[in-house]
Amino acid sequence: xxxxxxxxxxxxxxxxxxxxxxxxxxxxxxxxxxxxxxxxxxxxxxxxxxxxxxxxxxxxxxxxxxxxxxxxxxxxxxxxxxxxxxxxxxxxxxxxxxxxxxxxxxxxxxxxxxxxxxxxxxxxxxxxxxxxxxxxxxxxxxxxxxxxxxxxxxxxxxxxxxxxxxxxxxxxxxxxxxxxxxxxxxxxxxxxxxxxxxxx
Length: 200
What we know:
By secondary structure, this protein is α+β, with helices and mostly antiparallel strands. Helices cover 50% and strands 16% of the residues.
């Protein structure tokens, strides 16, 4: 039962990671005059892209700059690892629980590490907020935060289930005597009388 629950948690965590990789992680707005709400630069970060929009007249281009981000690559690795582990836990063969649980722990750990790295990166960027800049988290940030918690719960549940299912070693029989008892003497049958001993 714990394996099935861990697989379900990993599957949901992978789904949240898919959604988080294509939605906004954080956004920033730079103001020329915050009281007058005059925006100079507005940027939006996602796992696969980063878009910056400048106010009219600041740059000679059309005012939009798009760049590729590679956080999506690490999230994709976490998604694949979690889905493989979830499949083995939910529909995998039941004769090899150590293999299933090993994959579950590995998949949960990879998903946890990749999503946590992206979440912490978004938090680090948000610390640069100033009087003229406003930072905010997007839907992707909260989806990835949920994936972090689910992957951690799935890994812990798998480890606990593995410990509970490990059979205990049989207890050795205890002797009622503090020291070993020597074997009882065995009577030997008397044989036929032999000839009298020789005088030589």
